[in-house]
Amino acid sequence: MERLGCVGQLTAGAIGLLLLLRLIQRARRRKQVVQDKVVVITGASSGLGKECARVFHAAGARLILCGRDQKRLQEVVEELRAILPSMVERGSGHIVVISSVQGKISIPYRSAYSASKHATQAFFDCLRAEVERFGLHVSVISPGYIRTNLSRNAVTGDGSRYGVMDKTTAEGLDPVDVAISVLKAVTYREKDVLLVGLIPALAIYLRTLWPAAFFKVMASRAKKEKKIKEQ
What we know:
Blueprint: H1 2-34, E1 38-42, H2 47-58, E2 62-66, H3 70-90, E3 93-98, H4 111-131, E4 136-143, H5 150-153, H6 167-170, H7 175-187, E5 192-195, H8 198-209, H9 211-230
Parallel strand pairs: 1-2, 3-4, 4-5
Helix pairs in contact: 1-7, 2-7, 8-9
GO molecular function: oxidoreductase activity
Transmembrane segments: 193-219
Protein name: Dehydrogenase/reductase SDR family member 7B
């Protein structure tokens, strides 16, 4: 019995050591992948952009940070137009796009937002196929709700600021966790990353495998939301 106990302790210790070594290797690999690489981050003044800046800086990247200033955004647009050709010329580069689960499925009363995210998904799926032969990589990150000020900064139908933190947003993903997932996507060259819970993931599969059932669920949801708004 004592021998069996010693063997068990040694086995557990060996497994623990292997797991620790694996974690160290992963950390080193992440740092090596982005070490001294130039990373352009838009929306870096707050929320997910700010956390991405912190995570990539810690991994050794050289950052170009962009905010909401209109003049600066115009400069960013002009700079980004030059980035892709330079990537092709070097045969190296990785484009990461933050989309949304609503780029995979549409929910009631989010038509404009969902349409923009579907367009984002389609555009970068096409771009990924077109630039792969040049050695470039494209990752589309599709999270659910993220705990940022997005809903507070949203604009209502009359153009005024919404100014309220929605419950779904308040209970959303921690932007730090999403930023770490972005770094992981770059490290392992993941093409399509879905960061959602069980129910949204099942909804995506339902939309694909049994669309009629999905449409009924969404129609029922639309009726419920309409009643709530009318109260």
